[in-house]
Design a protein that fits this description.
The complex is a heterotetramer, with 2 copies of chain A and 2 copies of chain B. Chain A is α+β, with helices and mostly antiparallel strands. Chain A folds into 3 domains: about 5-145, Alpha-Beta Plaits (2-Layer Sandwich); about 160-225 and about 295-375, Sulfite Reductase Hemoprotein, domain 1 (2-Layer Sandwich); about 230-290, Alpha-Beta Plaits (2-Layer Sandwich), CATH 3.30.70. Helices cover about 35% and strands about 15% of the residues of chain A. In chain B, strands 1-2-3-6-5 form a 5-stranded antiparallel β-sheet. Chain B has a 4-stranded mixed β-sheet with strand order 7-8-11-12, covered by helices on one side. A two-stranded antiparallel ribbon of chain B has the order 9-10. Chain B is of the alpha+beta class. Chain B has helices at about 25-30, 65-80, 100-110, 145-155, 200-205, 210-215, 245-250, 295-310, 320-325, 325-335, and strands at about 30-40, 40-45, 50-60, 65, 85, 90-95, 170, 185-190, 220-225, 230-235, 260-265, 280-290. Classes of the chains: A alpha+beta, B alpha+beta. Chains A and B meet through helix 2, helix 3, strand 1, strand 5 and helix 4 of A and strand 1, strand 4, helix 2, strand 5 and helix 4 of B. Bound molecules: siroheme (4 copies) and iron/sulfur cluster (8 copies). One iron/sulfur cluster (SF4) binds near residues 164, 172, 206 and 209 of chain C.
Chain lengths: ~400, ~375, ~400, ~375
C-alpha cells in the first residue's frame, strides 16, 4: 500500500520540542497500523475533526477494565486502524524502571501492538496505544508473565499513583510509593472489575507541594504533612543570607500565615504555620518538615462533568500512616467510604458529587468521622440547618 | 476475544517498585536532606549519608515509540546503571551518581532530539490527552497543539528566559478534562460550541433514553418521538455543549469542523505553596482549530506568559499575580477582550460576581 | 379591667439600656391596647411562643401596601389587640426631623393608634405599631394632610433610604438624600401599588463605608465612589504623625491593595486603590475622596429565603449621578431592570435570584449593559459556556 | 375600611428632607471637611466654612412611645434649635452648634434613661425586628433579647471598654431576617428546629396547594390527600425549618415553645473598609428560648466579644480577625463546640469545604 502523503502533520516534525510525529515515523516503516494512523490523522488535520468511533466494550477475560476500545470511522480507507484499542498497564509506583523492564515492555508491544505508547497516561498508567481485539489476551498473557498487570478504566478503582516521595525527595512525610503499592495490591479486585457507581482514583503526594496533583485529580488525595515544629538549621539560614537570599522578601513576606520572623535568626510560630511548604521550598538546606509526620486525607476531586470541577476537601486533618495497623485503619476508612458510595451514589456519580448532594455531615456520620473545624474554610452562612431530633442542644 | 492461555495469571498488580530503584536510592530511601538545581534540567539531591544523586530531566512528547523506550533504556545503561524514571508530567529523568557523565548524557539526548530542562521556575511538559490520535470525543487534537505550543515555549523550558515561578500548562481535548486542566496556570481546552445532532434513527438501538436524558447537567434533553423514532430532542438554548450526552450515547455527536475550537484558562494551581490550590478561570472563550500549528493558540499562550513574566513578582504563580492585580488589569495588560462569556452563568455563578465596591479605576 | 401582672417582662424594665417595656408602660395607663399588648407579651414570655396570627390583607383605599395586618390568637383574653395592624410611614430622607414634625406624628398616632412606634423599621420607615382596621383610613388622612405618606410593603417597591450623606458627612460622593427623595417621588405608584413579582428596595450610601448597609439589604445598592486621585493634605498627614498615629501600621499596612507608601510624605498609587475608604477613615483631616465623584451601582442583595442570602453585585462600575439628565438615565436603567424582572421573574422571586437563575450575561444583554471585568471577582471556572450562534469569535 | 374623607390626598411621598435640615446643615450641605470623635457618644463635624456641628448620639430601644418622641422633640427645642435625626441603626442624634450645651443635654438624656455612646469602634444599637411584639413568624422575641444583650454590652456602647473595630450586632426573629443579620459582626437569629405541623382540615381553605408546594426551597412539600382533605405532606428529612411555607400559607405553622430557639452567627460585615463585605457564619447552632433575660444568649455574645477584644488587632472586624487566625482557632479560643451543623450542606456547600492542605496544628 502506498503511503498517504501527510504534509500537514509532517509540519510537526520540525521545531525544537520532541515530536510525536517523529515517534510515529520511527514505526511506520514496519507497522502498517501506524502508517494508517498517520493517514487518518492527516485526514483529521485537513478536516479538523476526529475519526474515531465511540468505543465498544472490549477487554481481557475476567477483567472489566484496563482496555479502551476504539474503532475508526474510516476503516475502509485505513483498515489497519479499524481496531485501535488502548491497553492501560499499571505503572510501578513512582514511575521507576530498569532498562531491562523497559525493554521487556517494548518487546511485548512490538509483538502485539502498534509500538506506540504513552509514557504515561494522565492517571499514571503505561498506555499501550493501538491494537486489535485479537491481540488483547496474548498481550495480557505476556505482560503478566513479565510481572505486569492492567490498570483501571470504566467504573473501576483506577490505578493509584504517587510522587517520587522518599525515593528522591527530602520532603516526603510518609512513604508514598509504599502506600501506593499497598493500595494497588490490596484493591486488585476493585481495580479490575467495575463495581462502583463510577471511577475512583487515589493519588499519594508526600507533602503539600502535591507533585502528583492529587488535590485536583484524585477522589482520595493523601497529602503528606507534619504536626510539630519545622526543623531549622540556623547555620544554613545564615549561609543563605550570606549567599544573597533576601530572606525578608522571599521568605518572611511570602509566608501565607505571616508566622515567620527573621533577625539574623529565623523564628517560626509553628502553631500558626499552615504547612504550605513555601519557606522549605526556598531554603531546603536550612528548613525541614517536623519529625511527627503523617498525612492529611482529602476527598472528592474531579473534572467538571456534571456539576462543575471539584477539588478534594479535608476529611481527616492528620493521620499517621506508616505501620501495618495504620494502613489497615486507612483502608477500613476507604472501605466504609466505598460502601456508603455504593449504597447511595447514583450511576456515574463520583464520591465528591455524592457528598455535595447528600451533605458532608451526613457523609461524616455514615463513615464514622467526627466533624472538625479543619474540614472547612468557614462554617455555613445559610441558616438552613437540618437539626437532628436528638441533637438540637449539640 | 482470543483464547486464553492455559495458566492465566491475573490480579498480580504492578511489579514492586523496589525492584526498579537504583542502589543509591535504596540506600538513602527516606533519608534525603536537600536538593539544588545545578543548571536548567539538572539537579542534585544530597542524602544524610552525604551521597549525591544527580537528576537530568529530558523533555518527552509522551506519545513515544518503543524505539524511543529502547533508546532511553540504552542511555540508562550507559550512564545510570540501568535506571531511570518518568515524572508526573511525563518527562523522563536520568538518575546519575557520577556528575562527570552529565554532559555526555545531555549531548546524547540532544542528538536524539530530547532537550533537557523543565526544572524549578520554568515551564515543564504540557500535561495532555489523546486528541485526534485516539479519542472519539476530542474537539481538537492534543499532541499537535502541545507540540506547537512547546516549540514556542522552549526558551522557558530550557531556562533561557526567566519566569517568576513554576508555570504549569495543560491541555484537554474536551470537557471531560482528562488532562485535569482545571487547576493549571494555563489550560488549553477543546470546546464544542454547538448542540449535539441527534441521530434519531439509531438512538434507540444504541442507547437507553432515560440514561441519555439523565446525562444532561442542564436538563436540555427530553424524550421525544421524532419521525416515528423513539428518540430525544435537545432544547438548544439549554445546551452548553458539554458532550456528556455523547459520552453516554454515541447517537448524540457534537464534533463539528467549523464550530469546534479551543479555549484558554488561566490562574489555576495545585500546590499549597503560599496560596491554596485554585481553579483556572476563563481567559479566552474561543480560538479556532487551525492545524497543523494552531498559531492563534500559540500566540495566546505566549502572550499570557510574556505579560506574566514581565509583570509578576518572584514566587507569584499566574493566579497569585492576577489575584494581586485584579482581573480587570489582567485583561488590560494582556489585551484579551472581556466578553459576556467570562461572566459565569452556571449553578454557583453568584460566587464569582463582584459583591463589593472594591473597584480600581485607571488614572489616565 | 384589672391589669394582668407581667412579672417576666417587668424584669426588662431594669438595667442600663433604655427599655422597650418602659415605653409600653408610658402608654398603658391611657391605652388599653398597650395594656393588652403587655398582657399578651407576658403570655408569650411564659409560654415561649408568639400569639399573633398570620396577617390578613388590610390597607388604605387605593394602596396595596403600607399596612401590615395583624390579629391576636388570644383575642378573647386580650380584646384590645384583636386587631393590631402596623402602618409604615415613609421617613424623610436621612431621618432628619423638626420637633414640630415629630409632635405632629406623635399626635396623630396618639389619636388613632397604640401610641407605640418604631423609630424606625429595618427598611427605614416610621413604623406605627398597632391599630385597628377602622383607624387606618383616618390616620392616613391626617398623615397626608400633614405632608406624610405611607411606605411600601408586599410586592411593592419599598421605601428607599439613604445615609446622612452630604448633610453631615465629609465623604458623600453624591447627594444621597436628593437621590433618595427623587426616587421616592418618581416611583410613588410602584411604592404604593404592588406590581412586581416581589419586593424591591433601594438604598443610597454616599461612600463605600455603606452606612445604610445597602450592599446587604437593597435590591439596588447605590454606593458613592470617586475615579480620580485621593486628595492628600500632606501638612495634615504630618500632624497625624506628630500626634502619634502609627501611619505605617494603621494605614499603610492595612491598605488592602497595598498601594500606599509613607516616608514623611504619603504617596498613593491611585490606579491601584480599590476605594475601600480605610485610609480616609483613619485620617479624615488629611485625606479626602477625589473630585470626580459618582457612584457604583450594585444589584440583587437580599435575605436568605429561598436560595440563600445574596449581596448586591456590581452592574455599573461608575456613573455620574448629579444632574437631571444623569438622574433620568439612572431611572431609565431602573425601569429596564423592572421590565425585565416583570417579564421573567417568578412569583416571589427577587431580582437577584432571577439573575442567578437566568444568568448575568442574559440579564446584561436584556437591560443593555456591556459586560465589564469590574462586574466579577473572577471569570467563570466551569467550561459550561452558552456560546451564541453569532458570537463565537467574540 | 373606614369611609374615605372628601378630598383624599395620595401619592405625595414623604416631606422633602430640606424642610427638616438644621440651618447649619443647609449652609454647609456637601461641604463638610472632616470629623472628630470628642468622647464616647459625641463627635464634631467641621465644614469648609469653619462651621462646627456637634452630634450627640443617644441609645434608643427603637420601640418607643409617642411620649418619648415628644421628649426628644422637647430636647431638640431646648438644645438644637428644634432639629434632630435618627440613624440607620435607630439611635437618635442631637445636632448642636453650641458645644457648651452638650453636657446639659447629656444630663437630661441620662435623666430620661437614654445613655449616649455607640460612636466609632464601639458597639452601637442592635438592629432588630418585631418578635413576639408584632410578628406571627417569630421563633423568639426581638426587643427582649436585644434589651438583655445591650444591658450586658453597655460598657462597649459607652466606650468604657475598648474594641479593636466597629462591632455590629443584629437580631432577626426568624429566617426571613428582617434585621438583615446576614452581614453582621454578630448576629442573633431565631430558629425553628421542627417541621411545620400541617393543618390539613383548613389548608385548602386558606392556601393554594401549588403555591405552598413551590414555597419550599428543598422540595419537601408534596400535594397529598390526608384524611379526606386536599392538603400537603412534608417529607420531614428534607425540611430545614425555614418557614417559607408558613409565610405563604398560615396552615403550616412551625412555632413551638420547646424547640424554637436562637442561633449565633459571626464575622459578617457590610462596609468596604479594608476587606470586602462578607456574610456572617454559624457560630452556635442553637440556644434555648429563655425569657425574660435569655442568659445563654447574653453569655454567648459577651463571650465572643470579650475573646475578640482580647485577641484581635486594631482595625480588625470580627470577620477579619477570624480570617487571620482561622476558624479552628476561633472555636478553640471561644470554647464554642464545633458540630456537624457548622458544616454547610445547602446547595453551594462545596465552597465552604477546606479544599487545600493549609492546616494549623496546635503545638502543645
Ligand atoms: C488516556 C487518558 C488521557 C490521556 O491521554 O492520558 C484518558 C482518556 C479518556 N478518558 Fe479520562 N483519561 C485519562 C485520565 C483522566 C483524568 C486525569 C487523572 O486521572 O489524573 C481525568 C480527570 C480527573 C477525574 O478523574 O475527574 C479524566 C477525566 C475523564 C472523564 C470525566 C470524569 C468526571 O467525573 O468528570 C471522562 C468521562 C467519563 O468518565 O465518562 C473520561 C473519559 C475518558 C475516555 C475513556 C473517553 C470516554 O468518554 O469514554 C478517554 C479515552 C481516550 C482514548 O481513546 O484513549 N475521563 N480522565 C487518561 C488515562 C490514562 C491512564 O490510565 O493513565
Ligand atoms: C519529579 C516530580 C515528582 C514526580 O514524582 O514525578 C517533582 C519533583 C519535584 N518537585 Fe514538584 N515535581 C513534579 C510535579 C509537580 C507538580 C504536579 C504537576 O505539575 O502536575 C506540582 C504542582 C504544580 C501546581 O501547583 O500546579 C509540583 C509542585 C512543586 C512545588 C510548588 C511550586 C509552587 O511554588 O507552587 C515545588 C517547590 C518548588 O519548586 O520550590 C516542587 C518541588 C519539587 C522538587 C524540588 C522536590 C525535591 O526536593 O525533590 C522536585 C524537583 C524540582 C522541580 O522543579 O521539578 N514541586 N511539582 C514532578 C515533575 C514534573 C515535571 O516533569 O515537571
Ligand atoms: C417591620 C420590619 C421589621 C422591623 O421590625 O423593622 C419587617 C417586618 C416583616 N417582614 Fe421584613 N421587615 C422589615 C425589613 C426587612 C428587611 C431589612 C431591610 O429592608 O433593610 C429584610 C431583609 C432584606 C431583604 O429585603 O431581603 C426583610 C426581609 C423579609 C423577608 C424575606 C425576603 C426575602 O426575599 O428573603 C420576608 C418574607 C416575605 O417577604 O414574605 C419579610 C416579611 C416580613 C413580614 C411582613 C412578615 C411576613 O412574613 O409577612 C414582617 C411583618 C412583621 C410585623 O408583624 O410587623 N421580610 N424585611 C421591617 C420593615 C420596616 C420598614 O418598613 O421600615
Ligand atoms: C449615622 C450613621 C449614618 C446614618 O445615616 O445614620 C453613620 C455615620 C458615620 N459613619 Fe457609619 N454610620 C452609620 C451606620 C453605619 C453602618 C451601617 C450599620 O451599622 O448597619 C456601617 C456598616 C457596618 C458594617 O460594616 O457592618 C457603617 C460603617 C462605617 C465605617 C466603616 C467601619 C469599618 O471599619 O468597617 C466608617 C469609618 C470609620 O468608622 O472609621 C463609618 C463612619 C461614619 C462617620 C464617621 C462618617 C462621618 O464622617 O460622618 C459617621 C459617624 C461615626 C460613627 O462611628 O458612627 N461608618 N456605618 C449610621 C450610624 C448608625 C448607628 O447609630 O450606629
Ligand atoms: S509532593 Fe512533596 S514529597 Fe512528593 S515529590 Fe513533591 S515535594 Fe517531594
Ligand atoms: S510552611 Fe508556609 S505557612 Fe508554614 S512557616 Fe513556612 S511559609 Fe509559613
Ligand atoms: S479530554 Fe476528552 S477528548 Fe481528550 S482524551 Fe479525555 S475524553 Fe478524550
Ligand atoms: S452537550 Fe451537554 S448540555 Fe448539551 S444536550 Fe448534551 S449533555 Fe446536555
Ligand atoms: S456611607 Fe459614607 S457618605 Fe454616607 S454617612 Fe457613611 S461614611 Fe458618610
Ligand atoms: S481607599 Fe483603601 S485601597 Fe484606596 S488607598 Fe486608601 S486604604 Fe488603600
Ligand atoms: S424576622 Fe421574621 S419574625 Fe422577625 S419581623 Fe421579620 S418576618 Fe417577622
Ligand atoms: S419549613 Fe421550609 S423546608 Fe420545611 S417544609 Fe416549610 S418551606 Fe420546606
Amino acid at each position: 500500500m502506498a503511503k498517504r502523503e501527510t504534509p500537514m502533520i509532517d509540519e510537526l516534525r520540525k521545531g525544537p520540542y520532541p515530536s510525536f510525529v517523529n515517534e510515529m515515523y520511527k514505526l511506520q516503516g514496519r507497522k502498517p497500523m501506524v502508517q494508517d494512523l498517520l493517514g487518518q490523522l492527516e485526514d483529521s488535520y485537513e478536516q479538523r475533526i476526529g475519526h474515531w468511533k465511540h468505543g465498544g466494550i472490549v477487554g481481557v477475560m475476567g477483567y472489566g477494565g484496563g482496555v479502551i476500545g476504539r474503532y475508526s470511522d474510516l476503516s475502509d480507507k485505513y483498515p489497519n486502524v479499524a481496531h485501535f484499542h488502548t491497553m492501560r498497564i499499571n505503572q510501578p509506583a513512582g514511575w521507576f524502571y530498569t532498562s531491562q523492564a523497559l525493554r521487556t515492555l517494548a518487546d511485548i508491544w512490538e509483538r502485539h501492538g502498534s509500538g506506540l505508547t504513552n509514557m504515561h497516561g494522565s492517571t499514571g498508567d503505561i498506555v499501550f496505544l493501538g491494537t486489535t481485539t485479537a491481540e488483547l489476551e496474548p498481550t495480557f498473557a505476556e505482560l503478566t508473565a513479565a510481572g505486569f498487570d492492567l490498570g483501571g478504566s470504566g467504573s473501576c478503582m483506577r490505578t493509584p499513583s504517587a510522587c517520587v516521595g522518599p525515593a528522591r525527595c527530602e520532603w516526603a512525610c510518609y512513604d508514598t510509593l509504599k502506600l501506593c503499592y499497598n493500595l494497588t495490591q490490596e484493591f486488585q479486585d476493585e481495580l479490575h472489575r467495575p463495581m462502583f457507581p463510577y471511577k475512583f482514583k487515589f493519588k499519594c503526594a508526600g507533602c503539600p507541594n502535591d507533585c502528583v496533583a492529587s488535590i485536583a485529580r484524585a477522589d482520595m488525595s493523601i497529602i503528606g504533612t507534619w504536626k510539630d515544629a519545622i526543623q531549622i538549621d540556623q547555620a544554613e539560614v545564615e549561609k543563605y543570607a550570606k549567599a544573597g537570599l533576601d530572606i525578608e522578601g522571599a521568605v518572611v513576606a511570602k509566608c501565607p500565615s505571616q508566622c515567620i520572623s527573621y533577625n539574623g535568626k529565623l523564628t517560626i510560630d509553628d502553631g500558626e504555620c499552615v504547612h504550605c511548604m513555601h519557606c522549605l521550598n526556598v531554603m531546603p538546606k536550612a528548613l525541614r518538615p517536623g519529625r511527627e509526620r503523617g498525612a492529611t486525607l482529602l476527598l472528592g476531586s474531579k473534572a467538571p462533568i456534571m456539576e462543575g470541577a471539584l477539588l478534594s476537601s479535608v476529611i481527616v486533618p492528620f493521620i499517621n500512616i506508616d505501620d501495618p495497623e495504620e494502613y489497615e485503619q486507612f483502608k477500613e476508612l476507604v472501605r466504609r467510604i466505598w460502601e456508603f458510595w455504593d449504597e447511595n451514589g447514583k450511576n456515574r456519580e463520583r464520591v465528591g458529587e455524592l457528598i455535595q448532594r447528600i451533605g458532608m455531615p451526613t457523609f461524616l456520620d455514615a463513615v464514622g468521622l467526627d466533624p472538625e473545624p479543619e474540614m472547612i474554610s468557614a462554617p455555613r452562612d445559610n441558616p438552613y440547618i437540618f437539626f437532628q431530633p436528638e441533637g438540637e442542644e449539640a | 476475544m482470543a483464547e486464553a492461555p492455559a495458566k492465566r495469571i491475573t490480579d498480580i498488580g504492578p511489579p514492586h517498585f523496589e525492584k526498579f530503584l537504583p542502589p543509591i536510592v535504596k540506600k538513602n530511601y527516606g533519608k534525603w536532606k536537600y536538593h539544588e538545581i545545578l543548571k536548567p534540567g539538572v539537579m542534585v539531591h544530597t542524602a544524610e549519608s552525604g551521597d549525591k544523586l544527580y537528576t537530568v530531566r529530558a523533555a518527552s512528547p509522551r506519545l513515544i515509540a518503543v524505539d524511543t523506550i529502547r533508546m532511553f533504556a540504552d542511555l540508562a545503561d550507559k550512564y545510570c546503571g540501568g535506571h531511570l524514571r518518568f515524572t508526573s508530567r511525563n518527562n523522563v529523568e536520568f538518575l546519575l551518581t557520577d556528575p562527570s557523565k552529565i554532559d555526555a548524557l545531555v549531548a546524547d539526548l540532544a542528538k536524539e532530539g530530547f532537550p533537557i530542562g523543565g526544572l524549578g521556575a520554568q515551564i515543564s511538559n504540557i500535561v495532555h490527552t489523546q486528541g485526534w490520535v485516539h479519542c472519539h470525543s476530542a474537539a481538537t487534537d492534543a499532541s499537535g497543539v502541545v507540540k506547537s505550543v512547546m516549540d514556542a515555549l522552549m526558551p522557558y523550558f530550557k531556562g533561557e528566559k526567566r519566569l517568576p515561578a513554576k508555570t504549569r500548562v495543560a491541555l484537554a481535548c474536551c470537557l471531560n478534562m482528562c488532562g485535569a486542566v482545571h487547576c493549571s496556570d494555563i489550560a488549553i481546552l477543546g470546546v464544542h460550541t454547538r448542540p449535539p445532532k441527534v441521530k434519531n434513527d439509531v438512538l434507540k438501538k444504541l442507547c437507553e433514553v432515560p440514561t441519555t436524558v439523565a446525562a444532561c447537567p442542564t436538563g436540555a434533553i427530553r424524550p421525544a418521538n421524532v419521525d416515528g423514532f423513539e428518540s430525544v430532542t435537545v432544547e438548544e438554548q439549554l445546551c452548553m455543549y458539554c458532550a456528556n450526552c455523547y459520552t453516554v450515547c454515541p447517537a448524540m455527536p457534537l464534533n463539528n469542523p467549523d464550530t469546534d475550537g479551543l479555549s484558554i484558562w488561566v490562574g489555576g494551581k495545585v500546590s499549597n505553596a503560599r496560596s491554596e490550590p485554585r481553579f483556572s478561570k476563563l481567559a479566552i472563550p474561543f480560538l479556532p482549530n487551525n492545524p497543523p500549528r494552531w498559531p492563534e493558540v500559540v500566540q495566546a499562550v505566549t502572550n499570557i506568559i510574556e505579560v506574566y513574566a514581565a509583570n509578576a513578582r518572584n514566587f507569584e504563580r499566574i493566579g497569585d499575580w492576577i489575584e494581586r492585580i485584579g482581573w480587570p488589569r489582567f485583561f488590560k495588560l494582556t489585551g484579551i477582550q472581556f466578553t459576556r462569556y467570562h461572566i459565569d452563568d452556571f449553578k454557583h455563578a453568584g460566587w464569582t460576581f463582584k459583591r463589593s465596591a472594591h473597584i480600581k479605576f485607571d488614572q489616565d
